[in-house]
Write a structure and sequence with these properties.
homodimer; alpha+beta; four-stranded antiparallel beta sheet; DNA-binding
DNA sequence: CGTTCAATTGACATTCTTCAAATCGCGTGG
DNA sequence: CCACGCGATTTGAAGAATGTCAATTGAACG
């Protein structure tokens, strides 16, 4: 399985939330101290390994690091020693630009691999901080070193992860460059929701772990625009927002906005073609069936 | 060596130009039919290989495909069979979005690896088209397959390429999301220039191989904005533009704009801190020393 | 030398940002 | 248990950068 989705919905595969309420039917808890018993095995690099490889992998990995909210996993310029699999909570990746501003690269959720953009270089190109109490597994970078020829499956797994993440980054890049505020926010929400669903969490009602300004930074919008757009969605009865608590009432409507389609309340047929940069959407009154 | 630069200048490592005039001292020509003799060996995956591996690699690779201008290397949804190293010319990667618009992912120049975002999936997530007469080497995807355990160095090389490209994509994403039109264009030009320099081409005077609307799409700007910003740069005597021909007169000034710094003509000292989204720059008259 | 399309330029529309102020929540302490 | 205070969020109003539409210019090429 991929860490990052290949779903056609979203260009926001690093968007993340916190994960308190699990659906009863599919409860997952982080493993204690073995890759073999880990609930994230299927999404971790361990998935790719043969049984003999996994033993070695298991002993090389440092299991279940705990992080407090706001604690850093690593900082920019730190020497690269490991990559990490998120077990619980959520991790924000950001970078300080030359002029001192913070650029948010992505948010990572349980089962996802952090810091693979640091492979092959000496120091981390970005910082990783926990947005809430979190835990991670630490995978020594030496496992991927040039010399380490004994685990080809591990390498192949990493390659797939990287390729996936690259695709996601490409999509997110397009998103930031070309979409309206409404489209970006809609994609963000839809993506978060889909990822929750994939992990068997509640996906129609959840708690965002990051601030409005984090979201804005991530989407290339001002904090105020994020806030305003949330309320607009609420006025359209697409969602209910209360601080970081989100409830989605009309997923189809949101997905429609995702495409830059503001006709979802009247007539689904009018789709526009040929616009290199699709134009946004005008706020309307507030009268849509849930 | 990396296909994509790790230079601190640019978030635009897929920006590309055509490469007619080589500097006399460092003339490079694409190899004919051997990786060992290829001038791009140092930037190709072949670099990572041991001598026994390179033999195999050499026989597996299909050397020197030729492409006419406008000819496709592959199209979105095509089955993934190979990745490609650009030997000459330039390749544009783009994607058709759900509403029919074209999203440009990047531009690739000689020595760079194309289609590594297709590894691990069945069909290409994007299309690749030659912007000018070009040539590529074709590397069968089977070399990276799960079963192919005999070339760990090749895998490691690929991993590094992927990680690099991921970092570049992250940077480009930030660029599209947060920077002003002037910053984006300045970064674009500086990046193109640095990449030319790296490959021993003339870097103060070159020919862009893509149209204004391609640049705009790639940077998340309207074609007209690209055009206007080019003329603004020209009025500032930073560059000379004549259609696709670019001459850079004041690299420092361009790099200053890159940082969102509009003070480069007066006082380099005034740098701003603390702005999450640095604010753009006002057009001024036209009186800067070359 | 004319045709054609890309690029430029102008004028205007619009989204989004910015600046500012008001509210809201929530933790703390009385 | 309620008042207080601080940060996060929301909301308002205004301005600015960029997009859109439209007309013009200019090159390249047959």
């Amino acid at each position: 399985m991929q860490l990052q989705s290949e779903s056609n919905t979203g260009n926001l595969d690093h968007a993340v939330v916190s994960f308190p309420p699990l659906r009863e039917s599919a409860r997952k808890l982080p493993s204690q101290h073995s890759c073999m018993a880990c609930t994230h095995k299927s999404s971790c690099l361990a998935q790719e390994l043969r049984s003999d490889e996994i033993d070695y992998f298991n002993t090389a990995v440092i299991h279940s690091h705990r992080l407090n909210s706001g604690e850093h996993l690593y900082r920019m310029w730190d020497p690269v020693r490991s990559v990490f699999t998120v077990l619980s909570g959520s991790i924000k990746i950001y970078r300080l630009s030359e002029n001192g501003s913070e650029d948010i690269i992505g948010f990572y959720q349980p089962g996802e691999l952090v810091a693979i953009d640091a492979i092959g270089i000496d120091t981390h190109p970005s910082s990783a901080v926990a947005l809430e109490p979190s835990s991670v597994c630490e995978i020594p970078i030496s496992l991927f070193s040039k010399q380490s020829e004994q685990m080809p499956h591990l390498q192949y797994g990493l390659i797939r992860q990287l390729s996936n993440q690259l695709r996601n980054e490409e999509r997110h890049s397009v998103l930031r460059g070309q979409k309206s505020a409404e489209q970006r926010l809609a994609m963000f929400l839809v993506n978060v929701s889909k990822r929750l669903k994939r992990n068997a969490y509640r996906y129609d009602e959840f708690h965002l772990s990051m601030s409005r300004s984090d979201i804005g930074n991530y989407l290339g919008l001002a904090m105020e625009t994020v806030s305003r757009t949330f309320t607009r969605f609420q006025n359209l009865t697409l969602i209910t927002v209360h601080r970081k608590q989100i409830t989605i009432h009309n997923m189809d409507g949101l997905e429609s906005l995702t495409l830059g389609n503001d006709e979802f309340k009247k007539d689904e047929l009018s789709v526009q073609f040929g616009h290199t940069i699709p134009r946004p959407v005008q706020p309307i009154g507030a009268s849509i069936a849930i």
